[in-house]
Design goal:
Elements lengths: L4 E9 L1 H7 L4 H7 L5 E7 L2 E8 L2 E8 L3 E5 L5 E5 L1 E3 L2 E6 L2 E9 L2 E8 L2 E9 L2
Antiparallel strand pairs: 1-2, 1-11, 2-3, 3-4, 5-6, 7-8, 8-9, 9-10, 10-11
């Protein structure tokens, strides 16, 4: 199953607590909590380009499965990391944050970010 497509955020859990945990300022947390971000994934074999648009902020990361890449985090920090693919899941550890993105079925993308005991879960539905 290919990850390629556009997905819009449908629901999320733990946003405020998680963003405080990663050090995002309160004003940005307030602005961001109700925005329905759009994630666009382009997959070509083991090569991925992921673009997340949240309001006016656009975050783009490109990587190849199993190879070190520079990934920009939610806070704008750039971290060297290796993204691994396990079945329908993409897993990466960025500093102390573990990110697992799972293509649950052809139309649902679930992204779970974990930082210690804080969990932020995002559920997005395919647009195209």
């Amino acid at each position: 199953m290919s990850f390629s497509g556009k997905y819009q955020l449908e629901s999320q859990e733990g946003f405020v607590e998680f963003m405080k945990g990663v050090g995002l300022p309160d004003d940005l947390i307030e602005k961001g909590k109700d925005i329905k971000s759009v994630s666009e994934i382009e997959q070509n074999g083991d090569q991925f380009k992921v673009t997340v648009t949240t309001g006016t902020k656009v975050l783009t990361n490109s990587f190849t499965i199993g190879k070190e890449a520079e990934i920009e985090t939610l806070t704008g920090e750039k971290v060297k990391a290796v993204v691994n693919k396990e079945g329908n899941k993409l897993k990466v550890v960025l500093n102390k944050i573990t990110s697992v993105t799972e293509l649950v079925d052809g139309n649902t993308l679930v992204n779970t970010l974990t930082l210690g005991s804080l969990v932020y879960k995002r559920i997005s539905k395919r647009l195209a």
